[in-house]
């Protein structure tokens, strides 16, 4: 007969529960996976399938009862790790939406706002359009599969353990959040530069012919120039989008690696590259 002790059952539960928590954390925060339009049942089934594939290759787990105080702390830690990795990629899409917001305000389309299900708020039409373009590019380059691969690697670089975080994890994620403004401004520069030239030209034209109604011709001209420049720049967005996707994936890979290493004391020599 087969006899199972309570320790064996707890080991089996922990072997799936703790990796599943990290996987679900990433699915909740990552773009595409965490879309509110996807039913929760589908997300949960996807998380269980990924966890069942990853769990056999996870290093030795700590000997702790999943329902004990130490087990609950490990559960919270795994959830934070998954959320942080997903948030690293979500920041990339926030930068693209920031570029759309800047372009909309410059074009005069700031009033054209719609409900955004990703952020549960309102965003401009150009921001949602660029977010859809970024989503299609994200799926076209298989970045979602690369993100799952990075998640599987994180169990090697940062194994499941009861040890606290080291290396200032939240500061690293906050520093990466600055990419929203820098990348968003860079992606919107073609539209902003073209509209700046257009506004200067309209100012000179109004100065030369004061009888022209600037408010009557200014809005159609800036809107038309903005849409034209946006259409012309779309074929050239593949390179910048792939570059920012690569940076987001590398950040998601770097976070668990840095969190699992002890912090360097001030003035210490840098660690050799692996």
TrEMBL record:
It comes from the Bacteria. Belongs to the FliR/MopE/SpaR family. This is Flagellar biosynthetic protein FliR. It is a multi-pass membrane protein. The chain crosses the membrane at residues 12-33, 40-61, 67-84, 91-114, 126-148, 180-205, 217-237. It is found in: Cell membrane; Bacterial flagellum basal body. GO terms for biological process: bacterial-type flagellum assembly; protein targeting. Keywords: Bacterial flagellum, Cell membrane, Cell projection, Cilium, Flagellum, Membrane, Transmembrane, Transmembrane helix. The keyword NAD does not apply. Role in flagellar biosynthesis. GO terms for cellular component: bacterial-type flagellum basal body; plasma membrane. Pfam families: Bac_export_1.
